[in-house]
Amino acid sequence: MAFDAIKNYYSIGEVAKIAGVPAYLLRYWEGFFNELTPARDTRGNRRYTNRDIAMVLNIKELVYEKGYRLGKASEIVKGVLRNSETDHKTTEILKLQKQIGQEKNRHGVVDERRMVLLKEIKEEIEDILHLLG
């Protein structure tokens, strides 16, 4: 679901579909990020504006794509740490951690293949020993 230029307000379900996160997470973020405060209708249902949706997408990018914890993401949203040197260093650290994780996964696959091959060799040697008596 994409933004509808004609529409002024969105329900929490619609925003959850747009952002690709569950509704309960949006409710949690509302309590954690003071900048995310959707209006309420007369029945108490949330009415998200395009500005609110942009904030949700910004928070999602900081947390899911850039790997920030909620406290740091909250500071960035408030503008306290925007474009700072520590922000750059954090991004570099996260990239390196991701590379290390990918290399560990590759090594795990190689190790698994080695184990399968060794088990096959062991079985063949046991078969030969059994035949020899």
Our count of domains comes out at 2
Mean pLDDT: 83
User: What is the molecular shape?
Assistant: elongated
CATH topology of the largest domain: Multidrug-efflux Transporter Regulator, Chain: A, Domain 2
Unreliable residue runs = none
Describe the largest sheet.
2 strands, antiparallel
**CATH class (first level) name of the largest domain:** Mainly Alpha
The helix tally amounts to: 5
Sheet-strand content, in percent, reads under 5%
InterPro entries: DNA-bd_dom_put_sf (IPR009061), MerR-type_HTH_dom (IPR000551), MerR_fam (IPR047057)
Pfam family, one: MerR_1
Organism: Pelodictyon phaeoclathratiforme (strain DSM 5477 / BU-1)
GO molecular function: DNA binding; DNA-binding transcription factor activity
Could you give the topology of this structure?
Elements: H1 12-19, H2 23-32, E1 39-40, E2 46-47, H3 50-65, H4 70-78, H5 85-132
Antiparallel strand pairs: 1-2
Please explain how this structure is put together.
This protein folds into two domains: 1-82, Multidrug-efflux Transporter Regulator, Chain: A, Domain 2, CATH 1.10.1660; 83-133. The chain is 68% helix and 3% strand. It has helices at residues 12-19, 23-32, 50-65, 70-78, 85-132; strands at residues 39-40, 46-47. Strands 1-2 form a two-stranded antiparallel sheet. The longest helix has 48 residues, at 85-132. The mean pLDDT is 83.
Give short descriptive properties of this protein.
DNA binding, MerR_fam, Transcriptional regulator, MerR family, 2 domains, DNA-bd_dom_put_sf, Multidrug-efflux Transporter Regulator, Chain: A, Domain 2, mainly alpha, DNA-binding, 5 helices, 133 residues, two-stranded antiparallel ribbon, 68% helix
